[in-house]
Amino acid sequence: MNLTIDLSENVAALEAQARSARMPAKDYLAQIVALALERQHRRGAENLGKHLDYMAVQVARTRPPKRWKPPFKKF
To answer: Which entry of 23, 25, 46, 63 is 20 to 30 Å from 70 by CA?
Structure first.
């Protein structure tokens, strides 16, 4: 997959940050994007977990509780 990001306004700042991190600018940007995607993925997983918990509570409220009955025995 290819992605193009216009960084024309922030090139100098990003290059300075990459230099201070002692990394090539391309690698520095790749790391920033990778971390951002990882955070987004983590947030999505957390939100999904919360949503599933919420839905489980809603289902539990609408379904009557099941009661176990022993099978009928003929004598």
So the answer is: 63
